[in-house]
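Hey L., structure's done. Input below.
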Amino acid sequence: MQRSASRRGVLLAGLAGFALAAAAACGGRQAGPVSTIHSYSAALRAKDYSRAYDMMSESFQARHSREEFIRMMKESGDEVAETAQKLSSQSKEVEATAEFRYGLGDTMRLVQEDGEWRIASNPIDFYSQATPRDALRSFVRAYELERWDVMLRFVPSKYRERMTVDKMREQFKGSQRAEIESMMNMIRANLDEPITDKGNEARMPYGDRFEVKFVLEEGKWKIQDLD
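Output:
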């Protein structure tokens, strides 16, 4: 099972890397995305995986060698054949997308419409709680902006009745301000650490011995413990 998952992971990563390359080709002197897709599909059908690798994005090639790509493609023959068939049977309309990364690991998705790039993601969702990582980034942002009212959104229900805006401010800006600031700086520096989740709970270790604990309540992730 683990070996199969590894093959599938590289295959999916390859397709993702190819999608980025195809989208980038849309805007310039190179072949358009539809032509690139057809060429990629043809390379897969011909089992010319070296040529398929040449169509991958630079970021993908930096993570995976040509030899690894070819080996995984050969070991995933059924999946590759299915992918080639689906790519060749799709319509000739392609939606070009781009992703802009900024701030605390935030992303903004853009799509090309009528020859112009437009923002497709919600630009005013500053404090998302859709995932544990979203919740942590949002919490850190609210702390940095001293939005104590927003930080209350991340308090689990079992503690919520005892917390107010004033108590939240006192907790983070009171007598233990220096310790809290040090902890928050450490969390900020480790926002991309791996997070494991099991059902309605999640954990993110950081530093030498600390851990952020999350809990899911009514579809929103909240911060149960920071250290």
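The longest strand covers residues 106-113. The chain has three domains: 2-92, 95-124, 132-225.

-- N.
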